[in-house]
Amino acid sequence: MISGMLYNCLQKELETTRMSCRDYMLDYGSFRTRDYKTTQEFLDAKYKHLESFIGHVGKNAFMEYPIYFDYGFNTYLGDNFYSNYNLTILDVSIVRIGNNVKCGPNVSILTPTHPVDPTLRYDQLENALPVTVGNGVWLCGSCTILGGVTVGDGSIVAAGAVVNKDVPPNTVVAGVPARVVKQLEPRDPNFDTMAVLKQYGMGYID
């Protein structure tokens, strides 16, 4: 799968692996704060559970439930990762996410794709391309990152954007397909994220 070559997505072994991942995802939603003496114990338990099925989980990573993965073990999360509700990562290929990355609700990272030739699709063939999200990136609500894309360090993907090509570092991209609408100066204290995104009709960004 991770080679980018065509493969049959309905192979028995792959189906079984995906089913197992679904069990882990459902179990993640079963944790209850009332079952723990402290909030920290609750967070530690959820973190440990993520480590049990995700390829790598950095320090202080947290995901709001529900979460959706194809396999889990092809995803690598950096330190201080946070995702709001309904994060979807179809990690047929490798997904690498850097440190200090934030995701709004309903963010989708989709590595798989399907042949243009319908006869190949009839045979359940697909392939996948990796995704890399750099350090300090903000993926705003309901944006979509497609396979083969690298999002550069410090960039912002506006709400609802569909990213089908690489995003340069320290830029804001918006729209369908996404395009650069702003070049950022790292650590610019005067940069108004909301103002820029509203200018391009992307006012909801959490």
From TrEMBL:
A Pfam family per the record: Hexapep
Recorded coiled-coil stretches: none
Q: Name one GO molecular function term.
A: O-acyltransferase activity
Mind telling me which CDD domains this protein's record contains? LbH_MAT_GAT (cd03357)
Give the source's domain of life in one word.
Eukaryota
Q: Which InterPro entries match?
A: Hexapep, Hexapeptide_acetyltransf, Mac_dom, Trimer_LpxA-like_sf
List residues traversing the bilayer.
none
Keyword tags: Transferase
Maltose/galactoside acetyltransferase domain: from which residue to which, for each copy?
Answer: 1-58
Question: Which family, according to UniProt?
Answer: Belongs to the transferase hexapeptide repeat family.
List the PANTHER family.
ACETYLTRANSFERASE, CYSE_LACA_LPXA_NODL FAMILY (AFU_ORTHOLOGUE AFUA_2G08430)-RELATED (PTHR23416:SF54), SIALIC ACID SYNTHASE-RELATED (PTHR23416)
Q: What is the protein name given in its UniProt record?
A: Maltose acetyltransferase
**What is the source species?**
Candida albicans
> What gene makes this protein?
maa
